[in-house]
Specification:
about 325 residues, seven-stranded mixed beta sheet, four-stranded antiparallel beta sheet, Nitroreductase/BluB, disordered N terminus, Nitroreductase, 11 helices, Thioredoxin-like_sf, 2 domains, antioxidant activity
């Protein structure tokens, strides 16, 4: 499957829509894969020694938060007998026409190649094994699944690592990497898909120097940033609701949040600031007067803390401070 945007094309492997019958003769579709991790294992023929051993071992193993689904080209009746005889605890699907076999490319000369796939809660393939040997396979899948669950169900490490760091290098950032940051921002949600955010990306030394004149003394460290991104928008670009909620600031904030996480993933510091002369910045960058200049984002590679002031060195080296969750959230009434 290929997901296309007007500015971005990403190749991904996601299960296609399908409908097959289970060993009980009940419909099973792609929707039944959503919201749960799924182990899909393709096996050549029910009742053969290797397939029996594999299915039995998948049935014995405890796959937490996961459903296990075996697929073959056998009939529903054959799969039912196979399941009952071996007391299998997995779902078995009959794919007599080879619809999913072809999609997952597990056929060679018309014969099924024993293969296993782990799908996440969106139906994306995250791990795969082809030309499987039964010996030790189920344990290997279990270990891979445990690692995947640990990665996916824990706090996103890029969100956890992100901080408003000030120590920056002056090293130039390739323009295609900066474009990736903007693409990430542009994929943010917005009211009625209005996409109210606007960006001016500055990587020219001449323009950067002019912007430096609009910075207060406390933001001296921004002068090392090889890229500054001005984020602006306008009230009329987005929803204004009946109680006068103006969504353009909220939605643009979501876009900036995407950008910050993407930057962290790419090994970049992205530090938004509120301290600058908005009139001067708008004049330098040609931003209309009726637009709100929401933030300037300094982007760069992590640099040497020793170049910072003593105050900022302390902040840079300190533990991240967050209010206790009890202060910012309550459940139900």
């Amino acid at each position: 499957m290929r997901i296309s945007f007007n500015f971005l094309e990403v190749s991904v492997m996601r299960v296609k829509p399908f409908e097959l019958l289970t060993d009980e003769g009940k419909p099973f579709t792609h929707v039944d894969l959503y919201g749960r991790y799924t182990i899909l294992f393709f096996f050549p023929k029910a009742g053969t020694s290797g397939c029996t051993r594999e299915a039995v071992e998948f049935s014995r193993e405890n796959f937490e938060k996961t459903q296990v689904v075996g697929i073959s080209r056998d009939s529903v009746e054959s799969l039912k007998r196979f399941k009952e005889k071996n007391n299998l605890k997995v779902v078995l699907l009959s794919d007599p026409e080879g619809e999913l076999h072809e999609f997952f490319d597990v056929l060679e000369n018309g014969k099924t190649v024993r293969s296993t796939f782990i799908l996440d809660r969106w139906g994306f393939v995250r791990r795969e094994w082809r030309k499987v040997k039964v010996e030790g396979h189920v344990q290997e899948v279990k270990e891979a699944l445990d690692q995947l669950l640990k990665e996916d169900l824990s706090l996103n490490r890029h969100i956890e690592w992100r901080r408003a760091r000030r120590a920056l290098k002056k090293d130039r950032i390739p323009r295609d990497e900066v474009e990736t940051l903007i693409k990430a921002a542009h994929l943010a949600p917005s009211c009625m898909n209005n996409q109210p955010w606007r960006f001016v990306v500055v990587d020219s030394e001449d323009v950067l120097k002019r912007l430096h004149e609009a910075l207060p003394g406390g933001n001296y460290w921004m002068k090392n940033a090889p890229v500054l991104i001005a984020v602006h928008s306008k009230r009329d670009f987005d929803c204004v609701l009946s109680d006068n909620r103006e969504y353009f600031l909220f939605d643009t904030g979501l876009a900036v949040g995407n950008l910050l996480v993407q930057a962290t993933q790419m090994g970049l510091v992205a530090h938004p600031v509120a301290g600058y002369d908005p009139v001067k910045v708008k004049e330098i960058l040609g931003i209309p007067e009726d637009h709100v200049l929401i933030t300037l984002i300094a982007v760069g590679y992590l640099g040497d803390e020793n170049e910072l002031s003593e105050k900022h060195r302390e902040i840079e080296r300190s533990e991240r401070v967050r209010k206790d969750l009890s202060e910012i959230v309550r459940w139900n009434l």
